Amino acid sequence: MAIPRDIGEMELEKLKLFRIDDLKSISNENYALKQEQAIKAKEIVLHCKDEYYKWLKAFSIEPVIRDMRLQAKEAIEQELRRAITKKFVPKEYETNMRKMAEQMFKRFLHKSTKNLRQSSTKSDEGYKVTSIANIFEIEMHEINFKEYKEKTKNNEEER
Fold it and tell me: Where are the domains of the chain?
C-alpha cells in the first residue's frame, strides 16, 4: 500500500496487489457477509430457543409420570402384601406375582404416558399436566426439577 499510488501494476504469481480503493469494496463485501451470517445465526438461536422451550414443557410432565408410576408400584406392593396375608397367593409366588403386576401396570400406563409426553410439548395442551397431577393427587409445587433431573441421570447411569 502506498499513498500516493506510486506502485504500478505487477503480475507476480504469489502476490496480489490491492489499492486503497479496493479496501472499501472488500470491506463492504465482508460487511455483507457478516450481515448474512448474523441472520443465519439469529435463525439458529431462535430455533434452539423454540426447541428448548418445547423440551422444557415436555420435561414438566416427567415428574408427574414418575409419581404416577410410583403410585402404581405402591399399589402393587400393598395389594401383594394383602393377598399373601389373606392367603390368596402363596408366599413362594410373590416374586412372580410382583413381576406380572409391574408388567401389567407398565402396559396399562404406556400409551397414556406417551400421549402425555406428546401433548405436553403443545402450547395449547399444557393444562393436561395440571389435570393429570390433580387426578393422581401429585403436588406440582413440590417438584424440584433440578433434583428430578439429577435423579433421572443417576438412574440412567445405573442401568
Answer: 22-146
Question: Among 61, 18, 79, 90, which Cα is nearest to 152's?
Answer: 61
d(CA 63, CA 152): 10
φ, ψ for residue 80 (rounded to 5)? -65, -45
Nearest to 133 by CA among 76, 72, 61, 80: 61
Residue 38: alpha-carbon gap to chain centroid:
26
What are the start-end ranges of the H helices in the chain?
A: 20-85, 94-120, 127-135, 145-158
For 48-61, the pLDDT digits (tens) are 998 888 777 777 78
The pTM score is 0.55
